[in-house]
Design brief:
Shape: elongated
Oligomer: single chain
Strand content: 5-15%
Distance between the termini: 40 Å
Structural class: alpha/beta
Radius of gyration: 34 Å
Largest sheet: 6 strands, mixed
């Protein structure tokens, strides 16, 4: 049967093939340009030599034409080389997406640097790390975009339904503009753009002492008079009215004035930002893509307006900054620095332009970079949505309680082989889930949590239907000891439960997801402690799902039938164990640990 994955695989394979063919064509053109540049340069040399021998003027004209042809061919070659790099980056994007479709996520950052074992749910729900949700979703081309994507997946602040739907609409619109998303992603294929580095550099140059008088009208008037005087003196010296030494000394004075006043701050600026040329150019490309897009959703329009509105256009600002960096970089050539200052006082004008840029744009740069980062994260989420066409949008309801009603729910990491389950969670109720090892309890709990996180991000969920309200979520499934700090496994569990209680007291409504409360103690103590814990938190605004092997805990339903409910993942024991992975009402009766151990011992 032809599936959606097959369709996407065919799509990406076709794109890779066509891009490879285009690269081969461009490389052949590059060879032709190389031959043409050698030929035009050779003809240029020959015509110059012939002119020096025969003194025919038309050879000089032919030499000039060869020079123009050579320059034109070189420019076309440079443009062709740029096109090859763009196509190679495009091919890289498609190859990575094809790898994703085939279940290989190793080419994407796993976000290990965002791992926080104390986060409310990130560790338990596989938000970060190898094979994680972040790794499957992350296509960011800037570190700022990566940070923002991580923040979206771990945001504990309650969002409004309006915020969720606004982001959902922005993601949906970008999903329909995959060509735009693909062009955006090409800019991070060689090296991700270091947003923090740019921000630190801009903050550092803000601290540099720069002669502010260069931005005054009177200083401009003085410099223009000096330049005019130099021009007049050169003309007078040329016609023999004054000695040639006067314009020479005048030019030397201009060099000394410009260099002594401006060289130090320019040198400091260059030292700080001389590594930013590539990244500034990349931001110019990204801002061009965003600001020229014809997006209409509220969220996307808001981002575009942040880059283009209020008479402070981000693209113009970054282009001017790029020109300033290029001019400052050219000062590294001492000969250029001398003549440009002696004749034109170029350092003064660079300082003046920089001060104008700083006064006009510097305070806006952080806002612009944040907008690009936000768009970067949205592109990643839109790509995830595009690659998962079978997922559906969750429905949010305005209810002041926990609402979670799922039909055909499954874990997003399992794909087509996943068993789908129906499940409904009522506010302030507790669900005790029993079952054998490997029967599907933990996966089901994670499916509940991760799909809710996806829904709150405005992303599609892996279910036939999911209706939820807005609430907080807290999990305790993977508690680890910390021997370096003298924290035992049992103590770590207690600290996690203490964090749970503190968090839930500060939240209006919380869904807690627990897998084996108090695993680090003996069976009877574990049972008594678990019962005590559940009874105690029942007074808090908490709704809970608890997976356990301890069948005695299911007797909570007998004591509190209006609050506690038993569900299970049952297995069938015969010659082979049959796992249904279906959740049903009741208490599991069949366990598999002894059964499997006997099989091992009898081998």
């Amino acid at each position: 049967m032809y599936t959606m994955n097959d369709h996407l695989s065919t799509h990406y394979t076709d794109q890779i093939s066509s891009t490879k063919a285009e690269i081969l064509r461009l490389r052949q053109r590059g060879k032709n340009f190389l031959v043409a540049s050698l030929a035009t340069f050779s003809f240029l040399i020959v015509t110059i030599v012939i002119y020096t021998i025969w003194k025919e003027v038309w050879f000089l004209g032919l030499a000039f034409l060869m020079l123009l042809a050579y320059i034109l061919v070189r420019q076309m070659d440079i443009h062709n080389s740029t096109s090859i790099k763009e196509k190679e980056n495009l091919r890289s994007v498609y190859e990575k997406e094809l790898a994703y479709i085939h279940g290989d996520f190793s080419c994407f950052s796993a976000g290990e640097n965002y791992l926080n074992p104390h986060h409310e749910y990130a560790l338990d729900l596989d938000i970060f790390g190898s094979q994680s949700l972040f790794q499957r979703m992350n296509r960011t081309v800037t570190t700022g975009g990566s940070d923002l994507l991580a923040s979206e997946l771990t945001k504990t602040q309650i969002r409004t339904i309006y915020e969720i739907e606004t982001q959902r609409d922005a993601i949906r619109e970008l999903t329909e503009h995959q060509e735009l998303c693909t062009r955006f992603k090409t800019h991070g294929q060689q090296k991700i753009i270091d947003t923090q580095h740019i921000m630190e550099a801009l903050l550092a140059i803000r601290q540099i002492t720069i002669p502010r008088f260069a931005n005054k009208n009177w200083s401009l008037a003085v410099v223009m008079m000096m330049l005019t005087g130099l021009g007049v003196s050169i003309i007078l010296a040329f016609i023999g009215k004054i000695a040639i030494s006067l314009p020479i000394w005048w030019a030397l004075v201009q060099f000394v004035v410009a260099y002594s006043i401006c060289s130090k701050p320019l040198r400091l600026i260059n030292k700080i930002v001389n590594q930013l040329h590539h990244q500034i150019q990349a931001y110019i490309s990204l801002i061009t893509i965003i600001s020229s897009s014809n997006l209409q959703s509220k969220g996307n329009v808001s981002l575009i307006h942040r880059l283009t509105g209020n008479n402070h256009h981000a693209l113009a600002s970054f282009k001017e900054l790029k020109r300033l960096l290029d001019d400052i970089d050219r000062r590294g050539n001492e000969l250029w620095a001398f003549f440009s200052n002696a004749l034109f006082m170029s350092d003064f004008f660079i300082i003046r332009r920089y001060l104008h840029w700083q006064d006009s744009y510097l305070m806006e740069v952080e806002k612009w970079i944040d907008a690009v980062s936000h768009f970067d994260a949205l592109v990643s989420m839109a790509t995830f949505r595009y690659n998962e066409p079978e997922a559906v949008e969750a429905e949010f309801v305005e209810e002041d309680k926990v609402v979670y009603s799922a039909k055909g729910l499954y874990h997003p990491f399992l794909g087509a082989k996943a068993i789908r389950n129906h499940f409904q969670i009522e506010d302030h109720h507790y669900y005790i889930i029993t079952g054998a090892n490997m029967a599907g309890k933990s996966t089901f709990l994670r499916a509940i949590g991760i799909n809710y996180i996806l829904a709150c991000c405005g992303l599609p969920v892996f279910a036939e239907q999911l209706t939820v309200s807005v609430f907080s979520i807290f999990s305790s499934m993977r508690t680890n000891d910390d021997l370096a700090h003298g924290v035992s496994f049992f103590n770590a569990e207690l600290l996690r439960l203490q964090q749970l209680i503190t968090t839930c007291r500060n939240n209006h409504h919380t869904l807690i997801i627990l897998d084996e409360i108090l695993k680090g103690t003996n069976s009877l103590d574990k049972l008594n402690g678990s019962r005590l814990f559940l009874k105690s938190i029942a007074s808090l605004p908490i709704t809970g799902i608890v997976a356990t092997h301890d069948l005695e805990l299911s007797k909570m339903q007998e004591e509190y039938p209006d609050r506690f409910h038993n569900y299970c993942f049952e297995i069938q024991l015969s010659e082979h164990i049959h796992y249904s992975y279906r959740i049903t009402e009741g208490v599991a009766r069949n366990q598999n640990a002894t059964y499997l151990l006997k099989k091992i011992l009898n081998q």
